[in-house]
Amino acid sequence: MPGKAKTRILLADDHALVRRGVRLILDSEPDLTVVAEASDGAEAIGMACEERPDLAILDIAMPRLTGLQTARELSRLQPDLRILILTMYDNEQYLFEALKAGAVGYVLKSVADRDLVEACRAAMRDEPFLYPGAINTLIRSYLNHAREGGTLPAKAITDREEEILKLVAEGHTSKEIASILVISVKTVERHRANLLQKLGLKDRLELTRYAIRVGLIEP
């Protein structure tokens, strides 16, 4: 748009092809420009600190740190940064978690060519953007909870357990996880045991299937 600065965007997704496609969509708009790309959550945080973008678009299922973990950290480090979650998962729990993590929008990859540009502009106007099905989910959930007089359901597992679940599902050993998270092997094993018990699962394979189902890693 003439006379108006472009919205500077950080794009984080571990698939180069997805990044290329999304970049083509965004860079073809007169008011949007991708200034940095990251292939995982940790890299995205580093890039955000370097480039100070206006908007971050984060995939949910990334290595090292998920999009949700990255969103939480970016919200803490750069409160003015707008965050959109871009995902293949139409998942109620993750929709709520994304909003709780500081995201202002939740866009499905399957309709990114239709929704993403509008979502970026809405974010820069400080307006939330949700795909139509998500709005139905929010309304249904609100009505159900209002009827029951309850609050939003708590997450089944803690943030730390989620980190460990993701790393287990990615194939890391307890020793490697302990090194990555700078905790003891004993603590990792305790968290693993808690995860199995809480989720009613038997072993690493079932933990991995669960992580895929809820969008922590991709199949």
From TrEMBL:
Pfam families: GerE, Response_reg
Protein's UniProt name: Response regulator transcription factor
UniProt keywords, alphabetically: DNA-binding, Phosphoprotein, Transcription, Transcription regulation
Keyword Ribonucleoprotein applies: no
Domain Response regulatory: 8-124
Location of 4-aspartylphosphate modifications: D59
Domain HTH luxR-type, chain residue ranges per copy: 150-215
Claim: DNA-binding is one of the keywords in the record: yes
